[in-house]
Amino acid sequence: MKLLEGKVAIVTGGTRGIGFATVKAFLEQGAKVALFGSRKETVDIALEKLHEENENCQVIGLHPNLMNAQEVKEAFQMVVKQFGRLDILVNNAGISQRDKLFDYNLEDFEMIMNLNVNAVFICSKEAAILMKEQGGGVILNTSSMVSLYGQPAGAGYPTSKFAVNGMTKSLARELGKDHIRVNAVAPGVIKTDMVAALPDEIIQPIINSIPLRRVGEPEDIANAFVFLASDMASYITGVILSVDGATMS
Ligand code: NAD
Fold first, then answer.
1. Best mutation site among 35, 192, 206 for ligand 1, i.e. most ligand atoms within 8 A of its Cβ?
2. Which of the following CATH numbers is that of domain 8-241: 1.10.3720.10, 3.40.50.720, 3.40.50.300, 3.50.50.60?
3. Which end of the chain has fewer surrounding CB within 10 Å, N or C?
Protein backbone atom coordinates (compact mmCIF):
# COMPACT_ATOMS: atom_id res chain seq x y z
CA MET A 1 0.00 0.00 0.00
CA LYS A 2 1.36 3.39 -1.00
CA LEU A 3 1.32 6.01 1.76
CA LEU A 4 -0.24 8.83 -0.29
CA GLU A 5 -2.47 6.85 -2.66
CA GLY A 6 -5.21 9.07 -4.12
CA LYS A 7 -4.02 12.25 -2.36
CA VAL A 8 -3.50 15.51 -4.23
CA ALA A 9 -0.53 17.68 -3.28
CA ILE A 10 0.94 21.07 -4.13
CA VAL A 11 4.70 21.52 -3.61
CA THR A 12 6.04 25.07 -3.92
CA GLY A 13 9.64 25.42 -5.09
CA GLY A 14 9.25 21.97 -6.62
CA THR A 15 11.68 22.40 -9.52
CA ARG A 16 14.91 21.47 -7.74
CA GLY A 17 16.54 20.55 -4.44
CA ILE A 18 14.35 19.50 -1.55
CA GLY A 19 11.16 20.45 -3.40
CA PHE A 20 11.95 18.29 -6.44
CA ALA A 21 12.87 15.31 -4.22
CA THR A 22 9.57 15.80 -2.39
CA VAL A 23 7.60 15.84 -5.65
CA LYS A 24 9.30 12.58 -6.69
CA ALA A 25 8.69 10.92 -3.32
CA PHE A 26 5.02 11.96 -3.31
CA LEU A 27 4.54 10.59 -6.85
CA GLU A 28 6.23 7.32 -5.85
CA GLN A 29 3.80 7.08 -2.92
CA GLY A 30 0.78 7.39 -5.19
CA ALA A 31 -0.04 11.10 -4.96
CA LYS A 32 -1.04 13.40 -7.79
CA VAL A 33 1.20 16.45 -7.62
CA ALA A 34 1.19 20.06 -8.77
CA LEU A 35 4.70 21.45 -8.63
CA PHE A 36 5.06 25.20 -8.42
CA GLY A 37 8.21 27.00 -9.59
CA SER A 38 9.22 30.59 -10.14
CA ARG A 39 9.64 30.37 -13.96
CA LYS A 40 7.96 28.42 -16.78
CA GLU A 41 11.34 27.22 -18.14
CA THR A 42 12.43 25.56 -14.88
CA VAL A 43 8.96 24.11 -14.34
CA ASP A 44 9.03 22.57 -17.84
CA ILE A 45 12.50 21.06 -17.27
CA ALA A 46 11.35 19.52 -13.97
CA LEU A 47 8.22 18.06 -15.60
CA GLU A 48 10.29 16.62 -18.44
CA LYS A 49 12.65 14.88 -15.98
CA LEU A 50 9.72 13.39 -14.05
CA HIS A 51 8.05 12.12 -17.23
CA GLU A 52 11.34 10.62 -18.44
CA GLU A 53 11.42 8.52 -15.26
CA ASN A 54 7.73 7.61 -15.38
CA GLU A 55 5.66 8.66 -18.36
CA ASN A 56 2.42 7.91 -16.51
CA CYS A 57 3.12 10.03 -13.44
CA GLN A 58 0.29 12.38 -12.51
CA VAL A 59 2.04 15.72 -12.28
CA ILE A 60 1.36 19.23 -13.50
CA GLY A 61 3.46 22.39 -13.21
CA LEU A 62 2.48 26.01 -12.56
CA HIS A 63 4.40 29.18 -11.85
CA PRO A 64 2.26 31.66 -9.94
CA ASN A 65 3.89 34.54 -8.12
CA LEU A 66 3.61 33.15 -4.58
CA MET A 67 3.56 36.64 -3.12
CA ASN A 68 0.43 37.58 -5.09
CA ALA A 69 -2.73 36.29 -3.39
CA GLN A 70 -4.84 36.47 -6.57
CA GLU A 71 -2.30 34.50 -8.66
CA VAL A 72 -2.03 31.91 -5.90
CA LYS A 73 -5.83 31.58 -5.68
CA GLU A 74 -6.07 31.04 -9.45
CA ALA A 75 -3.26 28.46 -9.41
CA PHE A 76 -4.90 26.53 -6.55
CA GLN A 77 -8.20 26.59 -8.47
CA MET A 78 -6.42 25.15 -11.53
CA VAL A 79 -5.07 22.32 -9.39
CA VAL A 80 -8.54 21.53 -8.07
CA LYS A 81 -9.94 21.71 -11.62
CA GLN A 82 -7.26 19.24 -12.79
CA PHE A 83 -7.17 16.81 -9.87
CA GLY A 84 -10.54 17.39 -8.14
CA ARG A 85 -9.29 18.28 -4.62
CA LEU A 86 -6.33 19.34 -2.48
CA ASP A 87 -5.10 17.20 0.41
CA ILE A 88 -1.53 18.34 1.00
CA LEU A 89 0.34 21.64 0.67
CA VAL A 90 4.13 21.71 1.08
CA ASN A 91 5.40 25.26 1.51
CA ASN A 92 8.98 24.67 0.39
CA ALA A 93 10.04 27.64 -1.79
CA GLY A 94 12.55 29.74 0.10
CA ILE A 95 15.65 31.88 -0.26
CA SER A 96 18.50 32.79 2.05
CA GLN A 97 21.09 35.52 2.28
CA ARG A 98 24.17 35.75 4.50
CA ASP A 99 25.11 39.45 4.64
CA LYS A 100 26.31 40.85 7.97
CA LEU A 101 23.95 43.33 9.63
CA PHE A 102 25.85 46.48 8.63
CA ASP A 103 25.77 45.45 4.94
CA TYR A 104 22.19 44.23 5.10
CA ASN A 105 19.60 46.51 3.55
CA LEU A 106 15.87 46.59 4.21
CA GLU A 107 15.01 45.59 0.61
CA ASP A 108 16.93 42.32 0.97
CA PHE A 109 15.37 41.70 4.38
CA GLU A 110 11.91 42.27 2.91
CA MET A 111 12.63 40.03 -0.08
CA ILE A 112 13.40 37.15 2.29
CA MET A 113 10.34 37.81 4.43
CA ASN A 114 8.09 38.15 1.36
CA LEU A 115 8.91 34.67 0.04
CA ASN A 116 9.79 32.78 3.24
CA VAL A 117 6.90 34.11 5.35
CA ASN A 118 4.28 36.08 3.39
CA ALA A 119 4.03 33.47 0.62
CA VAL A 120 3.65 30.72 3.25
CA PHE A 121 0.78 32.71 4.77
CA ILE A 122 -0.87 33.31 1.38
CA CYS A 123 -0.60 29.67 0.26
CA SER A 124 -1.62 28.26 3.64
CA LYS A 125 -4.75 30.44 3.75
CA GLU A 126 -5.77 29.38 0.24
CA ALA A 127 -5.14 25.70 1.07
CA ALA A 128 -7.03 25.93 4.36
CA ILE A 129 -10.11 27.37 2.61
CA LEU A 130 -10.20 24.38 0.24
CA MET A 131 -9.30 21.80 2.90
CA LYS A 132 -11.95 23.05 5.34
CA GLU A 133 -14.61 22.67 2.64
CA GLN A 134 -13.39 19.14 1.93
CA GLY A 135 -13.27 18.12 5.58
CA GLY A 136 -9.50 18.14 6.19
CA GLY A 137 -5.96 18.21 4.88
CA VAL A 138 -2.30 18.66 5.73
CA ILE A 139 -0.12 21.77 5.51
CA LEU A 140 3.64 21.22 5.75
CA ASN A 141 6.20 24.00 6.09
CA THR A 142 9.92 24.05 5.48
CA SER A 143 11.72 25.56 8.42
CA SER A 144 15.44 25.20 9.14
CA MET A 145 17.77 24.18 11.93
CA VAL A 146 18.66 27.88 12.22
CA SER A 147 15.10 28.49 13.41
CA LEU A 148 16.15 27.02 16.74
CA TYR A 149 19.29 29.05 17.53
CA GLY A 150 19.76 31.72 14.83
CA GLN A 151 23.02 32.16 12.90
CA PRO A 152 25.90 34.65 13.09
CA ALA A 153 25.15 36.36 9.73
CA GLY A 154 22.18 36.89 7.42
CA ALA A 155 19.69 37.63 10.22
CA GLY A 156 16.73 37.78 7.81
CA TYR A 157 16.80 34.05 7.04
CA PRO A 158 16.59 32.70 10.61
CA THR A 159 14.09 35.45 11.43
CA SER A 160 11.89 34.18 8.58
CA LYS A 161 12.19 30.58 9.75
CA PHE A 162 11.33 31.50 13.38
CA ALA A 163 8.20 33.06 11.83
CA VAL A 164 7.50 29.83 9.92
CA ASN A 165 7.65 27.92 13.22
CA GLY A 166 5.26 30.44 14.80
CA MET A 167 2.84 30.14 11.89
CA THR A 168 3.05 26.33 12.03
CA LYS A 169 2.20 26.13 15.72
CA SER A 170 -0.50 28.82 15.54
CA LEU A 171 -2.27 27.41 12.48
CA ALA A 172 -2.11 23.91 14.00
CA ARG A 173 -4.04 25.25 16.99
CA GLU A 174 -6.48 27.26 14.87
CA LEU A 175 -7.20 24.65 12.19
CA GLY A 176 -7.21 21.44 14.25
CA LYS A 177 -11.00 21.57 14.66
CA ASP A 178 -11.28 21.59 10.84
CA HIS A 179 -9.18 18.38 10.67
CA ILE A 180 -6.28 20.26 9.08
CA ARG A 181 -2.88 19.25 10.47
CA VAL A 182 0.01 21.73 10.23
CA ASN A 183 3.62 20.67 10.78
CA ALA A 184 7.10 21.79 9.74
CA VAL A 185 10.35 20.03 8.94
CA ALA A 186 13.55 21.79 10.05
CA PRO A 187 16.35 20.54 7.77
CA GLY A 188 20.02 20.66 8.69
CA VAL A 189 22.68 21.02 5.99
CA ILE A 190 21.19 19.37 2.91
CA LYS A 191 23.08 18.49 -0.26
CA THR A 192 21.24 20.73 -2.72
CA ASP A 193 23.14 22.42 -5.59
CA MET A 194 24.77 25.03 -3.37
CA VAL A 195 26.08 22.59 -0.78
CA ALA A 196 27.11 20.02 -3.42
CA ALA A 197 29.32 22.67 -5.06
CA LEU A 198 31.29 23.47 -1.88
CA PRO A 199 34.99 22.48 -1.99
CA ASP A 200 36.26 19.72 0.28
CA GLU A 201 38.08 22.07 2.67
CA ILE A 202 34.77 23.81 3.45
CA ILE A 203 32.46 20.81 3.52
CA GLN A 204 34.69 18.44 5.56
CA PRO A 205 34.71 20.54 8.78
CA ILE A 206 30.93 20.86 8.47
CA ILE A 207 30.59 17.08 8.15
CA ASN A 208 32.88 16.58 11.17
CA SER A 209 30.55 18.75 13.27
CA ILE A 210 27.46 16.67 12.42
CA PRO A 211 26.90 13.74 14.83
CA LEU A 212 25.74 11.47 11.96
CA ARG A 213 28.93 12.48 10.04
CA ARG A 214 27.22 13.30 6.75
CA VAL A 215 25.21 16.10 5.22
CA GLY A 216 21.57 15.29 4.55
CA GLU A 217 20.24 14.29 1.15
CA PRO A 218 17.13 16.01 -0.27
CA GLU A 219 15.46 12.58 0.03
CA ASP A 220 15.96 12.66 3.83
CA ILE A 221 13.69 15.70 3.96
CA ALA A 222 11.29 14.34 1.32
CA ASN A 223 10.82 11.18 3.40
CA ALA A 224 9.93 13.25 6.48
CA PHE A 225 7.37 15.13 4.38
CA VAL A 226 5.90 11.84 3.13
CA PHE A 227 5.49 10.59 6.69
CA LEU A 228 3.96 13.83 7.99
CA ALA A 229 1.63 14.07 4.97
CA SER A 230 0.42 10.49 5.39
CA ASP A 231 -2.27 9.07 7.66
CA MET A 232 0.59 7.46 9.66
CA ALA A 233 0.96 10.92 11.23
CA SER A 234 -2.77 11.42 11.83
CA TYR A 235 -2.30 12.54 15.48
CA ILE A 236 0.73 14.76 14.84
CA THR A 237 0.19 18.49 14.45
CA GLY A 238 2.01 21.63 15.54
CA VAL A 239 5.38 19.89 15.42
CA ILE A 240 8.71 21.25 14.15
CA LEU A 241 10.53 18.05 13.18
CA SER A 242 14.34 18.40 13.09
CA VAL A 243 15.91 16.36 10.29
CA ASP A 244 19.52 17.38 10.77
CA GLY A 245 21.58 14.39 11.91
CA ALA A 246 21.47 15.97 15.42
CA THR A 247 23.48 19.00 14.23
CA MET A 248 21.42 21.28 16.46
CA SER A 249 19.97 18.79 18.89
P1 NAD B 1 16.88 25.50 -3.77
O2 NAD B 1 17.47 26.86 -3.92
O3 NAD B 1 17.59 24.32 -4.34
O4 NAD B 1 15.39 25.50 -4.31
C5 NAD B 1 14.52 26.55 -3.95
C6 NAD B 1 13.21 26.40 -4.65
O7 NAD B 1 12.45 27.57 -4.36
C8 NAD B 1 13.36 26.30 -6.18
O9 NAD B 1 12.44 25.36 -6.68
C10 NAD B 1 12.98 27.70 -6.63
O11 NAD B 1 12.32 27.71 -7.89
C12 NAD B 1 12.02 28.15 -5.56
N13 NAD B 1 12.02 29.61 -5.48
C14 NAD B 1 13.07 30.42 -5.23
N15 NAD B 1 12.67 31.71 -5.31
C16 NAD B 1 11.33 31.67 -5.63
C17 NAD B 1 10.35 32.67 -5.86
N18 NAD B 1 10.62 33.95 -5.78
N19 NAD B 1 9.09 32.26 -6.15
C20 NAD B 1 8.79 30.97 -6.23
N21 NAD B 1 9.67 29.97 -6.03
C22 NAD B 1 10.92 30.34 -5.73
O23 NAD B 1 16.61 25.37 -2.22
P24 NAD B 1 16.59 24.11 -1.23
O25 NAD B 1 17.92 24.05 -0.60
O26 NAD B 1 16.01 22.91 -1.86
O27 NAD B 1 15.59 24.70 -0.14
C28 NAD B 1 14.22 24.43 -0.10
C29 NAD B 1 13.70 24.87 1.25
O30 NAD B 1 14.45 24.21 2.27
C31 NAD B 1 13.84 26.37 1.51
O32 NAD B 1 12.69 26.82 2.19
C33 NAD B 1 15.06 26.45 2.41
O34 NAD B 1 15.03 27.58 3.25
C35 NAD B 1 14.93 25.16 3.21
N36 NAD B 1 16.19 24.66 3.79
C37 NAD B 1 17.21 24.23 3.00
C38 NAD B 1 18.39 23.78 3.60
C39 NAD B 1 19.56 23.26 2.79
O40 NAD B 1 20.62 22.98 3.37
N41 NAD B 1 19.44 23.11 1.48
C42 NAD B 1 18.50 23.77 4.99
C43 NAD B 1 17.43 24.22 5.75
C44 NAD B 1 16.27 24.66 5.14
1. 192
2. 3.40.50.720
3. N
